[in-house]
Design goal:
Chain A: InterPro entries: AP_complex_ssu, AP_mu_sigma_su, Longin-like_dom_sf. Chain A: Belongs to the adaptor complexes small subunit family. Chain A: This is AP complex subunit sigma. Chain A: Pfam families: Clat_adaptor_s. The complex is a heterodimer. Chain A is α+β, with helices and mostly antiparallel strands. Helices cover about 45% and strands about 25% of the residues of chain A. Chain A has a single domain, classed as 2-Layer Sandwich (Beta-Lactamase). Chain A has helices at about 25-35, 75-95, 100-105, 105-115, 125-140; strands at about 5-10, 15-20, 50, 55-60, 65-70, 115-120, 120. In chain A, the strands form two sheets. In chain A, strands 2-1-5-4-3 form a five-stranded antiparallel β-sheet, sandwiched between helices. In chain A, strand 3 (about 50) and strand 4 form a beta hairpin. Chain B is α+β, with helices and mostly antiparallel strands. In chain B, strand 5 (about 740-750) and strand 6 (about 755-760) form a beta hairpin. In chain B, helix 23 crosses helix 33, helix 25 (about 480-495) runs parallel beside helix 27 and helix 26 (about 500-510) crosses helix 27 (about 520-530). Classes of the chains: A alpha+beta, B alpha+beta.
């Protein structure tokens, strides 16, 4: 991945992580592109948009768009499932996740994100192991 | 943590309640100010590292979380780094945890703060901590995991690279837990991506093999990512690992051996499968090399690999669950990619199977699959022998071109571009053009570019190409870049065969006729009409005047760029058609005051040109443009490259020349050769005609001049021609003069020998340095040279210096050895005080007639010889008009002509042959210094006759000599002299 952005239907950013050094203005441009290109798309359209040097692969859950930017030549379908895997992990942790969970427990979702993806690459595809690691970490904090 | 972060919760609520972006911004600014205040340490609270010691663990964590939150929302956070580092240094896991997370998000690798934290990270990586969690102190592997994770996530890796040996060690150490290993693998990959030299394949491949045998699928997944990353940088080093990859694939696909947790909707770890397939794609030769070596082990894994791929191809089904179907198809597409990379070395049934599947995919409703089907089919189309089967799907692809989804349309366009060839080009391009009218702006530019390339590539008739581009302009002119219409001009200019140029001119004239048309049309029309308008000027409604009117109606609405093109076209029109001049002149007059410098300059120059230069020079300047160089890559292909990256299927396609192109190229090469021959012939003739009378050959300033050298100023050329012609018939005079230099010549001849003195006078205010005069040797003249010291030295730093108001002198002693018809060239080179290099290619007025000796013949003898010399190459004849403004031809005039023949050309008048005053006849002998077999000098008898036609104001000059060159030479000198009479 190059970056990972969660955006609400209204174009608000709920979570964002850039795995490469982008300058602030590049980041702003990317988020603007996402808002302009993805939000207006009809549900029947495909989940891949080409945008210059990378592709947006996105998936919509209720009113939340999970968008990742991948370099050309990535397998788009599996990226799509990667998003789903992440959502399943969030689901497992928050017990049927909703937008509010993400808003108020940003740090938790970040932990899950970091546990699953390192430097933009999938690290663990077993969500049970991911959740176990998170729970262990929490136990240690307590 | 929910209890700890009450403040954080409130802050988030506040932000959520914010009604507008401005309100949110205000709240964030307030919070930032607050945090800044809290973090600002004073007095004894200032810690060594710049953090505020007064903060307790809870509030430090809280504020750092707030910063993280603000950062994630997209605001700039540029302080608080000291507090983050304090958290990382902490021995408590809860603090370290927050610290590392914030570190990954807030800090960039090039941050100066990074240095101070390096040691802490290194310690976390290597120091053994307690093995079980006690008192909130982190265990080794959790600390390692945290450290690795943030190393990998921190963007900008310059500083972190120092840690790579620790990372590598952690990855390969036996003691590392799977959880740490998989993170270390990805972390290392991240480092290697930034600086590829960190890991060398030879050393690391064995470790890699070890990792690939790990039982833990998480570790395997990460390791395969690392393997793919390393191998794509340096495939050779990791070739030995192919069997491992095939083995894992075999386990997953054939035996479905996979831990339950790693099944993803019943598919065994699709991520791992895809990464392995990607790794195998790096080795397109894998199949063939194995067969050559005939190695058993190799053979075995190739068999296994093929059965894996065919199983993936045959057993992938559409399933109810979208997730399962996605995962399976993801693997399937990767397998097809693998087949594509194998190309013809792979089994053909796999290729056919893949083709059949893709054919199915591009017609399914599910948009993702269709998108990828189109994409992958475009890749497959690059393989030899697939074109036919792909063409069957043409109509399906055309349907996708009209899809509502821009991504699908793009890919359909891409596939159409790739599958296009000479057979279906017309259909596809017409279809695309038709669709262009409906296409939305986002895709138009790409479409226009691709249509233009296809039309050029596969046009069997270039007129169709021109039509297509014109259609593009009229449908979507704003998206037709300059490169596209420039290409039209290039192609039309470079293909003079057939009626393409006339056709284009006529079509564009019609295209530009409406009052309203796209500016690009005006530009192409202006350019093409300027070049080839004359080809259609005879047709009704297309005369020069009408061409001007049609173009000029757009003047008011055109921008500066178009006007500049129009200005040049007008100049060309005015040059060709007398009737256009009064129309064009006011335009130039007005534009002389244009605010645009380019237009101002052009119109001023064009307006003044006619007075300033000789008609020949004007003709030269306004001549048609020479053919363009055939560049390997057209500007359009370059654009395509920029847009799609070098390795895309479309680019590979575009750069391959099509059959039509090759054919055209061959044609135009043949035509160019033919043209060259004709041109060479013409040039030879031209030279012969022009040379003795023109002081410089062909183009002014041509020759071996580099850019920094100043040649002969254009404005002195007419004067020079005249001076040269004069000197041919008079014993002394000025050959060349400008503000710096005057070249004077004095010459006298006896028989075959001559003595020529050349004087170079410095007219400038400064000395002329490195002054050199180089006289070219020629076959027909023996030349002895003497001159001021250094003058004849042809070295760069040779030459003499000519002081102000002094002269350098050159003395030439010549003897003619054979008939000739040109004049020896002399290059004069010097450098002015301020370093400007000057080089003037001049010609010395040593022409054939200089060596004539008059012969007086009786009329009868003259007529007898005259008749005996009648014949093709012994005779030269040309008609010359009296110069405009000269007196009408009367007896006085004829006396001057006779004078030229006797004194200038050194012929003996044969008065008896001229019964009327309107003819002048003369005879002479051309003496050479060569001896014949008997030891006598070879001489050539020459006869000349000038007949005047006073009514037409013209003279006919006829020369008859024993030698063709002599005939030509005498005629030429006679012509120029008569012109000057």
């Amino acid at each position: 991945f190059n970056f990972f952005v969660l955006m609400s239907r209204q174009g608000k950013i709920r979570l964002s992580e850039f795995f490469q050094s982008y300058t602030e203005s590049e980041k702003r441009r990317i988020t603007k592109d996402i808002a302009a290109d993805i939000l207006p798309r009809a549900p029947k359209m495909c989940n891949i948009i080409e945008k210059g040097p990378y592709k947006f692969v996105y998936r919509r859950y209720a009113s939340l768009y999970f968008v990742v930017g991948v370099p050309l030549g990535m397998n788009e379908l599996i990226v799509l499932e990667q998003i789903h895997l992440f959502v399943e992990a969030l689901d497992g942790y928050f017990n049927s996740v909703c937008e509010l969970d993400l808003v108020f427990s940003l740090h938790k979702s970040l932990l899950i994100l970091f546990e699953m993806f390192i430097g933009g690459m999938l690290c663990e595809s077993n969500k049970r192991e991911v959740l176990k690691a998170i729970v262990e970490a929490e136990e240690m904090v307590e | 943590m929910s209890t700890q972060a009450r403040g954080l919760q409130n802050f988030i609520s506040d932000l959520r309640n914010a009604k507008s972006k401005e309100e949110e911004q205000k709240r964030v600014d307030k919070e930032l100010a607050n945090i800044r205040k809290k973090f600002t340490a004073t007095g004894k609270n200032l810690g060594e590292d710049g953090s505020n010691n007064a903060l307790n663990s809870y509030s430090r964590k809280k504020y750092v979380w707030k910063l993280v939150y603000i950062h994630v929302l997209g605001y700039d956070v540029d302080f608080g780094h000291a507090e983050v580092l304090a958290l990382v240094r902490s021995t408590k896991y809860s603090e370290k945890h927050v610290g590392y997370t914030a570190l990954s998000l807030l800090l960039r690798g090039d941050d100066p703060m990074m240095n101070s934290i390096l040691n802490t990270i290194r310690k976390d990586m290597t120091n053994p901590g307690p093995t079980s969690a006690k008192n909130n102190v982190p265990t080794t592997d959790t600390a390692q995991a945290l450290a690795l994770c943030s190393i990998a996530n921190i963007s900008g890796l310059e500083l972190i690279q120092t840690l790579h040996s620790e990372v590598q060690h952690t990855l390969t150490a036996k003691s590392s837990t799977p959880c740490v290993k998989k993170k270390a693998a990805l972390c290392l990959l991240r480092l290697v991506r930034t600086s590829p030299k960190l890991v060398t394949g030879r050393e690391f491949a064995p470790h890699m093999a070890q990792l690939l045998q790990d039982k833990h699928l998480g570790v395997l997944t990460s390791s395969t990512s690392l393997l793919y990353g390393l191998a794509s940088q340096n495939p050779q080093d990791y070739q030995t690992l192919i069997p491992y990859a095939v083995h894992i694939l075999g386990m997953l696909v054939l035996k479905k051996a996979c831990a339950r947790e790693y099944l993803y909707y019943r598919t065994p770890s699709p991520w791992l499968q895809i990464k392995l397939l990607k790794f195998l794609q790096l080795y397109p030769q894998a199949l063939s090399s194995g067969q050559n070596e005939n190695d058993n082990g190799q053979e075995q894994h190739i068999v296994q690999l093929i059965s894996v791929v065919s199983k993936i191809l045959t057993e992938t089904d559409v399933s109810d669950s979208i997730n399962k179907s996605n995962a399976d198809h993801a693997i399937l597409f990767e397998a097809v990619n693998l087949i594509v990379t194998w190309g013809s070395s792979g089994p053909s049934q796999l290729r056919e199977g893949a083709m059949k599947l893709l054919g199915k995919f591009i017609s399914v409703r599910e948009p993702n699959i269709r998108y990828l089907g189109l994409l992958t089919m475009a890749k497959l189309a690059q393989l030899e022998g697939t074109a036919e089967s792909i063409k069957k799907h043409q109509s399906t692809v055309l349907v996708s071109l009209k899809d509502a989804d821009i991504s699908v349309r793009r890919r359909a366009l891409g596939l159409l571009f790739v599958m296009c060839d000479t057979d279906n080009a017309e259909r596809i391009v017409d279809e695309l053009v038709a669709h262009l009218a409906l296409a939305d702006a986002a895709i138009r530019e790409e479409m226009v570019l691709k249509i233009a390339i296809l039309a050029e590539k596969y046009a069997t008739d270039l007129r169709w190409y021109v039509d297509t581009i014109l259609k593009l302009i009229s449908i979507s002119g704003d998206h037709v870049s300059d490169a596209i219409w420039h290409r039209v001009v290039q192609i039309v200019t470079n293909h003079p065969q057939g009626d393409l140029q006339a056709y284009t001119a006529a079509t564009l004239l019609v295209g530009a006729s409406p009052r309203r048309c796209h500016e690009t049309t005006v530009r192409v029309a202006a350019y093409v009409l300027g070049e080839f308008g004359f080809l259609v000027a005879e047709r009704p409604g297309m005369s020069g005047e009408e061409q001007f009117r049609i173009l000029h109606q757009h003047w008011a609405t055109s921008d500066a760029k178009t006007r500049a093109i129009l200005t040049s076209t007008y100049a060309k029109l005015a040059n060709l058609y007398e009737e256009c001049r009064p129309l064009v002149a006011p335009v130039f007059a007005r534009c002389k005051n244009s605010v645009d410098v380019e237009i101002q300059q052009r119109s001023a120059e064009y307006a003044a040109m006619r007075e300033a230069f000789s008609p020949e020079a004007v003709e030269d300047l306004l001549r048609e443009m020479p053919p363009f160089e055939d560049k390997k890559q057209s500007a359009l292909e370059q654009r395509l490259c920029e847009k799609e990256g070098e390795d895309s299927a479309a680019v590979a396609k575009a750069t391959r020349p099509s059959a039509a192109q090759r054919q055209r190229q061959a044609q135009s090469q043949a035509a160019a050769r033919a043209a060259e021959e004709v041109a060479a012939q013409q040039a030879a003739e031209q030279n012969a005609i022009n040379d003795p009378i023109s002081p410089i050959s062909g183009n002014p300033g041509a020759g071996p001049l580099d850019r920094s050298t100043v040649g002969i100023p254009k404005d002195v050329i007419p004067a020079m021609r005249k001076a040269f012609s004069n000197l041919c018939t008079s014993p002394s005079g000025v050959l060349f003069e400008n503000s710096l230099l005057q070249v004077g010549v004095k010459h006298e001849y006896v028989g075959a020998q001559g003595r020529i003195s050349v004087f170079f006078g410095n007219l400038s205010k400064t000395p002329l340095l490195h002054f050199r005069a180089i006289v070219d040797e020629s076959d027909h003249l023996r030349i002895q040279k003497q001159g001021t010291t250094g003058l004849l030295d042809d070295g760069d730093d040779g030459g003499c210096s000519v002081e102000v108001r002094t002269q350098a002198k050159l003395l030439l002693l010549v003897e003619v050895t054979a008939p000739f018809d040109d004049a020896p060239a002399m290059r004069v080179m010097f450098e002015t005080e301020d370093g400007e290099l000057h080089e003037y290619p001049l010609r010395l007025p040593i022409v054939a007639t200089c060596f004539m000796e008059p012969v007086t013949l009786e009329p009868g003898a003259f007529m007898q010889r005259w008749r005996s010399l009648e014949g093709q190459d012994r005779e030269c004849q040309e008609v010359v008009k009296t110069p405009a403004g000269a007196d009408s031809i009367d007896e006085e005039y004829m006396k001057r002509i006779a004078h030229i023949i006797t004194d200038g050309l050194k012929f003996g008048r044969c008065a008896g042959c001229d019964p009327t005053p309107w003819t002048v006849s003369g005879a002479a002998t051309f003496r050479t210094g060569s001896k014949d077999d008997n030891g006598n000098n070879i001489n050539v008898g020459c006869l000349v006759r000038v007949e005047a036609n006073p009514q037409a104001g013209a003279f006919r000059v006829t020369t008859r000599t024993l030698h063709p060159l002599c005939s030509k030479a005498v005629k030429n000198v006679a012509l120029v002299s008569i012109k000057l009479a």
